[in-house]
Amino acid sequence: MTFRERLRALPAFPRPGLPDLDTEAAPSSPHELFATWMDEAIDAGLLLPHAATLSTADAAGHVHARVLLLKDLTADGWWFASQSTSPKGRDLAANPHAAMTFLWPELGRQVKVTGSAASAGVDASRADFLARSDLSRAVGLVNHQSEPLSSMAEYERAFAEALRAVTADPELVAPDWTAYVLAPTEVEFWQAPDDGPHVRLLYRADADGWTTGLMWP
Ligand SMILES: Cc1cc2nc3c(=O)[nH]c(=O)nc-3n(C[C@H](O)[C@H](O)[C@H](O)COP(=O)(O)O)c2cc1C
């Protein structure tokens, strides 16, 4: 079999018994439906249900994407955290438009959150950093994310120094660590059925809250 044949032989959604998306019974806000879907993904034991692809673009419109973890969901939006000095942080400083895409294949579900991402502020960023384990705080303190690295030994030296610093001072916060909130303008819920068409429900923000509509599969 060629590589192409192997790819094309793969089923799109191999599991029977996928859940339904009852669009008539959908809640009035996408936050509520997302929280339900996340609960179901966690209860189903999915690996990394809180992992999402964050897409950003720089001022010239060049798009960059990477996977990161959802940290919270509040009325303000979908939270994630990273270095403001990283490529994603630089993209967001130049152009706040961003999207987070979640995929829960075992449930036949995708959620696309599109909007504008900004820092949640110094206090929230500090709280996010201090809630991390010592090892994670050390990773965050090392910084230089995505810069060229001459050897793993160089990283290990920097990491060991950062670990010493965070264990010596439990209040130490990496200066560029930032909690971001993606405030959505649109959220799309996509459900694959056992058979039949995909169901797509779009929430769009307007002056009065949210309007919903179906999308062609
Ligand atoms: C499952 C998973 C979770 C990740 N979580 C985060 C995260 O929460 N924050 C983060 O900055 N990077 C996270 N990363 C690393 C990013 O994918 C990426 O490599 C890094 O942030 C640099 O991205 P950038 O160069 O586009 O800014 C995660 C990677 C994976 C695979």
How far is the first residue's CA from the last residue's CA?
31 Å
Please tell me the CATH architecture of the domain at 27-129 and 178-215 by its name: Roll
Q: Specify the overall morphology.
A: globular
What is the CATH superfamily label of the domain at 27-129 and 178-215? Electron Transport, Fmn-binding Protein, Chain A
How much β-strand is present in the residues?
25-35%
CATH class of the domain at 27-129 and 178-215: Mainly Beta
How much is the average pLDDT? 96
Which stretches are low in confidence, meaning pLDDT under 50 for 5 or more residues running?
Answer: none
Rg, Å, rounded = 20 Å
Q: CATH topology of the domain at 27-129 and 178-215, what is it called?
A: Pnp Oxidase, Chain A
Question: In this structure, how is the largest beta sheet organized?
Answer: 9 strands, antiparallel
General description of the model:
This protein is an alpha+beta fold. Helix 5 (134-142) packs across helix 6. The radius of gyration is 20 Å and the shape is globular. The longest helix is centred in the last third of the chain and has 17 residues, at 152-168. Strands 1, 2, 3, 4, 5, 6, 7, 8 and 9 form a nine-stranded antiparallel sheet that branches. The chain has a domain at 27-129 and 178-215: Electron Transport, Fmn-binding Protein, Chain A (Pnp Oxidase, Chain A, Roll). Helix content is 29%, strand content 34%.
